[in-house]
Design goal:
heterodimer; A: alpha/beta; TIM Barrel; 9 helices; B: five-stranded mixed β-sheet; 10 helices; binds iron/sulfur cluster
């Protein structure tokens, strides 16, 4: 048994650069077919984080030197405290919200723009759209979600934000220029004259398919595979995620029992054996979800919203 | 003590010459360059020659590492295809036009320079002390993060470049997990600073054609006694013959997009790495 333990593919937390908040738990107004933690209006396996809980973690994060804060769900804006949570976060550092863009309200955005003006830091919105047409997007994300997400983008732009539109490449890579051109024109028509687009590789679908089929033993990361491997490519090497059940190793695995590492950041500052099927995908394709402004050390990849 | 700091030169040998003369006139006793000699502009060898001739102390940037070792790309870390396309054009040009002798010299450059002034520890790096190509933007770099860098790297003032936009932040040190767990000495109550010195290579996306460098004054030169800090930074906007640079770039068939930036002061490429606050200040 001891020999076995030594053979585990262990990843240490290098430095806690990004602190994630599973701020809406698994609650979402949508129920996308590819959602990796199966969020929906009825999935209550993780609950909302309260303002107080988030503030406690922000205060705790100061001594860890956290560089950026990320907010995800579910749909973060279902959380009734979301606006005040973001306002408070901007006292501590930059914030990024991953939203489906369909529930935003003008009065919230007004308040948030005022908070940004008074802060040193950026507030980024990442809105997910899965393709440049409703025909491509809606079957995955639900009826009329294309139109509703675009309305959300319009609102953000009207309030002085520059949302990052993230999309999965559901087309061939050689068509990038054409499709992105189509997307730019569309966003232009909706009042967004310098759209920021971020394409996520198609492997998301592959990863999802693999995940749905389950992983075979051959897909597991082994200790030998980590020899000479740059573990900073893995989210779990530089992030932790706060959930209403405790602090988890990464946003991808929150559903796994061993992923909750403790109740405080200090308790969650320990190594993790990346033995899950999803870990093999991370290992192969690199980290997920950070913004382009972080640079390439973290390669953009799979699931966000 | 008066110290001059030049950020990314990006082959802008004209601005470099102008900056050296300007800094000397202002009384600079030591001159430093924080790396990325190549990219963007024309005739890479000229920049190397000027830097070496003036015995400017240089930190190796990601560009210098790549050119020195003949790597395939600049390791700037862009993630957008259009940004990468333009970055590759300037990289290939710079690699093809840097002599073997200069490339050998680029390989020898240190990745950090440290010194102490009046008991304060300065650390000069290119991106961040922990990673040469890390972007530290003003709006996406928290103060706790900078504070922890000072602990982890045992310094009080960090100077860097790499992003192309100058900024600085000063704060009072507070305890971090590094010294709580005993990996570095306990935190005395001291002031710390991070200074991004800007770049000489291209304007700052503000619609003016000037570029920027920084002077840091310490001790009596900082007006000790009057100033609460034992050092003072001044960001200096530098006008230079940008029309001449544009002519040389055209003659070298460098992309029109780059020339437009030199002539208008607005960035036309590498925009996708900008965080939203910085992006909103620009035109594109
Ligand atoms: S899923 Fe990825 S980020 Fe999460 S623990 Fe496994 S390797 Fe790390
Ligand atoms: S992918 Fe995002 S928008 Fe879709 S159900 Fe999951 S959390 Fe909601």
């Amino acid at each position: 048994m001891i020999a076995n333990t030594e053979q585990l593919p262990i990843v240490e937390l290098g430095s806690l650069d990004e602190l994630w908040f599973q701020v809406a738990g698994t609650r979402c107004n949508l129920a996308c077919t590819h959602c990796f933690i199966s969020c929906s209006p009825h999935n209550n396996s993780f609950g909302f984080l309260s303002f107080d809980e988030v503030e406690r973690r922000l205060l705790e994060s100061v001594k860890w030197g956290v560089k950026e804060f990320y907010f995800t769900g579910g749909e973060p804006f279902l959380n009734p405290d979301m606006v005040s949570i973001l306002e408070r976060t901007l006292d501590f550092g930059p914030a990024t919200v991953l939203t489906n863009g369909t529930v935003l309200k003008p009065e919230w955005l007004e308040q948030l723009q005022a908070a940004v003006q008074g802060s040193l830091y950026s507030l980024e919105f990442r809105v997910s759209i899965d393709g440049p047409t409703p025909e491509l997007n809606d079957p995955i994300r639900g009826p009329r979600t294309f139109e509703r997400a675009l309305r959300g983008v319009e609102l953000l732009v009207q309030h002085g934000f520059l949302p990052i539109i993230t999309m999965t490449r559901v087309w061939d890579e050689t068509e990038d220029d054409a499709v992105l051109g189509q997307f730019r024109n569309l966003l232009n028509d909706h009042g967004y004259d310098r759209p920021r687009l971020k394409v996520l590789p198609r492997l998301q679908l592959g990863a999802e398919a693999t995940r749905t089929c389950g992983y075979s033993a051959a897909d597991r990361v082994t200790a030998e595979m980590l020899v000479g491997y740059d573990t900073s490519k893995l989210v779990c090497q530089h992030s932790r995620v706060v959930t209403d059940r405790g602090v988890a190793v990464c946003p991808i695995l929150i559903d796994s029992r061993d992923a909750i590492l403790g109740q405080t950041l200090a308790e969650a500052n320990r190594s993790f054996a990346i033995t899950h099927g999803a870990c093999a995908t991370c290992y192969q394709f690199g980290a997920i979800c950070t913004n382009p402004s972080s640079g390439s050390a973290f390669k953009p990849m799979t699931n966000d919203q | 003590m008066q110290l001059a700091f030049f950020g990314g030169i990006y082959n802008n040998h004209i601005a470099l010459k102008t900056a050296i003369a300007d800094a000397q006139q202002r009384g600079a006793e030591r001159m430093f360059c924080l790396g990325d000699l190549g990219a963007f502009g024309p005739h890479p060898d000229r920049t190397c020659e000027i830097i070496r001739e003036h015995k400017i102390e240089v930190v190796q940037g990601n560009y210098d590492h790549s050119i020195g070792h003949g790597l395939n790309d600049c390791q700037c870390g862009y993630t957008d295809p259009r940004d990468n396309h333009f970055a590759q054009l300037s990289y290939d040009y710079t690699l093809a036009n840097t002599s073997d002798e200069h490339r050998a010299w680029l390989r020898t450059l240190p990745t950090e320079i440290r010194f102490e002034v009046d008991g304060f520890r300065f650390l000069l790096c290119h991106g961040s002390p922990r990673r040469t190509n890390e972007f530290l933007w003003e709006s996406t770099t928290s103060t706790p993060f900078l504070n922890k860098l000072c602990d982890d790297f045992a310094c009080d003032v960090i100077l860097g470049t790499h992003t192309g936009l100058h900024w600085q932040r000063t704060w009072d040190a507070f305890p971090t997990c590094s010294n709580l767990t005993g990996t570095s000495e306990a935190c005395p109550t001291i002031t710390r600073s991070y200074i991004n010195i800007g770049v000489l290579g291209r304007p700052e996306n503000d619609g003016t054609t000037n570029v920027w460098y920084s002077m840091v004054r310490t001790g009596n030169d900082a007006g000790a006694g009057r100033s609460p800090l034992p050092w003072k930074v001044e960001f200096i906007p530098l006008a230079y013959d940008h029309n001449q640079l544009a002519r040389e770039m055209r003659a070298e068939h460098l992309p029109d997009e780059f020339i437009e930036t030199i002539l208008t002061g607005w960035w036309t490429t590498c925009l996708e790495v900008l965080p939203s606050k910085e992006r909103r200040r620009g035109q594109w």
